[in-house]
Amino acid sequence: MSEIMNRQELKMVTLPKICDRRGNLTFIQNGDHIPFDMQRCYWIYDVPAGRQRNGHAFREAYELIVAMSGSFEVVITHPDGTVERHLLNRSYYGLLVPPMTWRELDNFSTNSVAMVLTSTTYSPEDYIRDFDTLRKEVSDE
Ligand code: TYD
After folding, report:
1. What class has domain 12-140?
2. Which of 5, 26, 69, 109 yields a CA-CA distance of 20 to 30 A from 93?
């Protein structure tokens, strides 16, 4: 997958939002809202305010990142060094992050909850935890 392809596939997804007097409801369904079948869901919470989670990329996994509560930023660093910051602060927005994309989670607000849906089950081998390794693997493709 090329860098250009990554840039095209990285996008904010607006999820359905059903509002009535009882409150709001949002949902995600395989085949409808994201271009992958969900295999796993995890969430990150009780992050000290302002803290950052270590960066990484995935070789195969797609992910959709949603701020279920509070806010945080997803920081994308492209192989050429350019940086995009995406603020997530509504639970009906999800950031679709394709494989081979370096991302960090930053600036967590107090009591924020980051939910991540992914296209694979957990596999440590799918992780790229070093930015230079990602750059090399992208340029070898
Ligand atoms: P880690 O990938 O380091 O978190 P982050 O996404 O913030 O970089 O995961 C922390 C620990 O949790 C690590 O020991 C692996 C474990 N883990 C699982 O067992 N399954 C999972 O789905 C995830 C995301 C993590």
Report:
1. mainly beta
2. 5
